Amino acid sequence: MTTVAAAFAARHAAWEEEHLSPLAARSYPARRQVPEEDCGLRTPLQRDIGRIVHCKAFRRLKHKTQVFVAPENDHHRTRLTHTLEVTQISRAVARALRLNEDLVEAVGLSHDLGHPPFGHIGEDVLDRCLRDRFGRSFKHFEHSLRVVDVLEREGAGLNLTDDVRDGILGHSGRSPTPRTLEGRIVRIVDRVAYVNHDIDDALRAGVLREDALPADAIAVLGDTGSKRIDALVHDIVEHSERAGDVVQGPEAAAAMDALRTFMFEHVYLGPVARREHAKVEGVVRTLFAHWCDRPELLPDGGGAPGADLPQRVTDYLAGMTDRYAISVFRALTVPEGFAA
Predict the structure, then answer these.
(1) Cβ-contact 185, 90 below 8 angstroms
(2) Is residue 110 within 8 Å of residue 148, measured between CB atoms?
(3) Which of 185, 209, 236, 245 is most buried, judging by how many CB atoms fall within 10 Å of its CB?
(4) pTM exceeding the 0.90 threshold for the entire prediction
(5) How far is CA 5 from CA 14, 16, 101, 227, in A?
(6) Where are the domains of the chain?
(7) Going by CATH, does the domain composed of 4-338 fall within 3.40.50.2000?
(8) Position 87 pLDDT exceeds 90
């Protein structure tokens, strides 16, 4: 008698051929850096999703900044809630286009695993620290791939499938475009999600007034975050279906770019952010210099066996949560009697 496990792969592959677009990535065969036998009850991409959700770097996302450093407001986004929002929106787009939802979920859940503490401010400071001292650079999308390839599971890595790894590396506008349409969905939706939920958080924090948002962009996309996301999703789906690629229409793309530019001027690089930037710079530079000067004090040697000093310092620092980085900084700089 044929068991469920014995028939699973063939049944799922047949379902994909019948229901998915010819342009969709397929779940089989699995292409991994280290070949593995397939699971009898999960596709290779579903196994990747499980590995990502259960890894340590994923758990740390809940205490990493999205925009507001160490937010006290329980409703502000963290790197984890941003990740979940990107994944949910990406799946909706993939479903509408008959693309592989499991692939967009795996890429969406893992795309920011390499983000350092303190959001984009922390990434910028760590990059400048590396350039100043070692002539190297730091890009979170490259480090996200390093996390899943090298750092997780005590150096064994997660051994994710090649399409997921390609999507992780290509999710940023600064990186090469992913080869799959599913990876390209996450690349666009990442921006759709953060522009709109960062507006929501900035309004809640009193950093922005609603009437200050660019009127032309709001007229095109809508006057609430949910309306804007809905309009952008519909725009992506309709234009992508006609193009045979993942694209935005010119009007919606221009409106979203206007909102993003506005956010950089008034929130990401605005006066409140600049005040926090100086504080974050002090924390990151202090920790970076401390471990570069005293590498023997790096916990677990930096957690990357065989790596050189700048890489070990980078691996450890980029893996820290905001609150852990602040805690270590205080231990290094505040006299013990005053720490409480």
Answers:
(1) yes
(2) yes
(3) 185
(4) yes
(5) 15, 17, 22, 43
(6) 4-338
(7) no
(8) yes
